[in-house]
Design goal:
The protein has about 180 residues and is of the alpha/beta class. It has helices at about 10-20, 40-50, 65-70, 85-90, 95-110, 125-140, 165-170, and strands at about 25-30, 55-60, 75-80, 115-120, 145-150, 155, 175-180.
């Protein structure tokens, strides 16, 4: 099953899924950025042919690829990093915020079930977070999950807004559902 370089072929993965078809409901494409994989549409189609639901974890790096697969997705976990006009500060890639924003728009227009999340590192101030919240709410996002981040040692770092009831009340006014975890 493992090749000399330690990789597993896609056919081996499909065979493994076939053996477990009665034990699984879905497969989520995740890790790194799945939208950067040129064979993602074929892989999604293969999994759908097995009768499984298909999910995707993404930060929206390639809206063109998302547009190719969105109609086959049953669920998307979408990670917002910061205000879209400030993405290059985080990613180091000019135009990455415009791509992420376009991907979020594609998702919203598609009607695909989705979870929009922001992982709160301590560098995101409450003021900046509120700007992000307003921006995505204005785009039509109806629910948001605020997540705790982990430091380089995998310790959970709790952002101050998690214990700020007033902030959370103000933030929840923008959405049908605001969740923290």
């Amino acid at each position: 099953m493992l090749s000399a370089d330690g990789s597993i072929s896609w056919e081996d993965i499909l065979n493994l899924l076939r053996k477990r078809i009665n034990l699984l409901e879905a497969l989520v494409f995740s890790g790194g950025e799945p939208l950067l994989q040129e064979l993602l549409p074929d892989a999604v189609a293969d999994v759908k042919r097995l009768g499984l639901l298909v999910g995707l974890h993404t930060a929206g790096a390639e809206p063109g690829m998302l547009a190719k697969v969105v109609s086959q997705l049953d669920w998307v976990g979408f990670d917002v990093k910061c205000r879209f006009d400030e993405y290059a500060i985080i990613t180091g890639i000019e135009g990455s915020g415009a791509k992420a924003k376009k991907s979020l728009k594609i998702l919203l227009d598609s009607g695909t079930l989705m979870e929009v999340r922001i992982t709160l590192c301590t560098q995101i101030t409450a003021e900046k977070l509120m700007e992000i919240i307003q921006e995505i709410s204005n785009m039509g996002v109806k629910g948001l999950v605020l997540q705790k981040c982990r430091d380089k040692n995998e310790n959970i770092v709790e952002h101050p807004v998690f214990s700020d009831k007033l902030f959370l009340r103000k933030a929840s006014a923008y959405f049908d559902r605001l969740e923290t975890r």
